[in-house]
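User: Can you help me understand a structure? I only have the sequence.
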Amino acid sequence: MSEDTTYEPDTLTEAASGSGCHATDEMASAARAAGQSELLDQFARDYPQGPHDKPQSMCPAFGSLRVGLRMKRVATVLSGSACCVYGLTFVSHFYGARRSVGYVPFNSETLVTGKLFEDIREAVHELADPERFDAVVVTNLCVPTASGVPLRLLPDEINGVRIVGIDVPGFGVPTHAEAKDVLAGAMLNYARAEIEAGPVAAPAGGVSDLPTVTLLGEMFPADPVMIGQMLAPMGLAAGPVVPCREWRELYAALDCGAVAALHPFYTAAVREFQAAGRPVLGSAPVGHDGTAAWLAAIGESFGIAAGKVAAAQNAFLPAIKGALAAAPIKGTITLSGYEGSELLVARLLIESGADLPYVGTACARSEWSEADAEWLRARGVRVKFRASLEDDLSAMEGVRPDLAIGTTPVVQKAKAMGLPALYFTNLISARPLMGPAGAGSLAEVVNAAIAGKDRMDRMRDFFEGVGSGDTAGIWEGSPNERPDFRALNQKKIDKQKRAAKAQEMI
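Assistant: Let's start by predicting it. Here is the structure, written out as tokens:
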């Protein structure tokens, strides 16, 4: 092995070897000690943290894993603790993955001696079959990242198969939405280098004769089609959707006239498009106002005559206004989620007639979300970026809306309070949002949920008196709560906090 492909791992700290994904500070310190400071500093710039510097939902790596599993001819390999890999593969198959996920196991010895890296390299060589794959994605989870396993030392390609190594630690990437950006950005970086080196293969679907707008952010399958229809009167076409479904689409995505950051958290991907000289626009063609402003911004970016822009607007804005009027939403709603499209959904709900005092998103504020945030604030909406679960629950409990749209724990809490609730990811995010098709898409499910308030009241009344928490259930006598045990445990917790505080002052 040559000198530039070796590394000497530091002794792994106890924090990195077994404290779990909630030991964020300790694992981040271990990663810096293992030479990962540059990586963590880049994560801090790309994904500025807030309450979500500690996991509040599923492992962030699920996002990058799902992006890789949705691509044709791309193999995925995970390197991490067995419990993490089990959970990630389970949830990926739950969400419809139809292929295997590779796993390189390790133990304390292989981790600290460097054998883990050798095992990863061996696994990649075995997988790199150009008849089966265009690329192999290798992902370090928390422990390998914290110990400095250097995926950057893997070959760029083996037998013509691209090798893409990424680190997606829970202590560096706050949400699974932003983990999608980690892999999308890495693939765009690789594809951009290939383009700069010489001719590349055309996408399977061919190359558009019209200037294209690349669409940044996963969306309902009908939305790119609708966006293409709205662009047509201006002589433009919808380009690929990033994250892409096959490697060659990355070339077409980079070969665009402009990029629409429909989901505003793709910071690494935006950096690659900007490096390729492509302008990036925020917001999306959602609702009447959003569509009018977005089409105008697209026209300005491409230097299209005002008449053509007006023709595109006139072709779709009346239909959008009609769809909104035909499917009104009446009621007070609080909205929260971690997909990155929360502000777009909020705009659509307000234009449909809903009263929306609060919208929270687990993603960070960015340049590409600012127009949506300003539009919402102008209508009295409190917009909370990097919203924590506590923020979302506080808003829901304070407002007591007719409907709470949010993550699983928000929905759970709302239903316990007798409030109708909908899970954002499965019931709201998985619907068309763009143009006339999106204008009326939310009303049916939202109005049906609001109309179910009486049913929620009956359920709450039925279960009244069964207890909650550790006193839940039907008891023949009074539950044995043992307040003495609670007091003793609280003393232990307080003592640990005082010891930790004293340690900080040393």
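Now, to help you interpret it: Residues 1-7, 9-18 have pLDDT under 50 and may be disordered. The longest strand covers residues 161-167. Let me know which part you'd like to focus on.
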